[in-house]
Amino acid sequence: MQVQIDRTACQAYGNCADEAPAVFRLDDLGYVQLVGGDEVPADQEPAARAAILSCPARALHATE
Ligand code: SF4
Predict the structure, then answer these.
(1) pLDDT per residue over 7-64, tens digit each?
(2) Could you say which DSSP state residue 42 is in?
């Protein structure tokens, strides 16, 4: 599973980093960044999916 972030859509709510801190983090202004690359480790996929669903701005997407 790979994740993509749309920083132009991100509204800095922070839900993603709360749900999946090993995948998403926030920059100094509160906008999303990837912790590692766009490939999500298998053990982090459930958290990443929860983060994607938690984003009010729909700024996170996944591809298999
Ligand atoms: S939950 Fe969505 S809007 Fe909030 S910081 Fe994460 S990507 Fe941005």
Answers:
(1) 999 999 999 999 999 999 999 999 999 999 999 999 999 999 999 999 999 999 999 9
(2) G
Q: Measure 50 CA to ligand 1 centroid, in angstroms.
A: 12
CA of 21 to the centre of ligand 1 (A): 12
What residues does ligand 1 touch, defined as CB less than 6 Å away? 10-16, 32, 55, 57, 59-60
CATH code of 31's domain: 3.30.70.20
Residue span of the structural domain in which 22 resides: 2-63
pTM beyond 0.85, yes or no: yes
Backbone φ and ψ for 41, nearest 5 degrees, come out as -55, 145
Give me the number of domains the chain comprises. Answer: 1
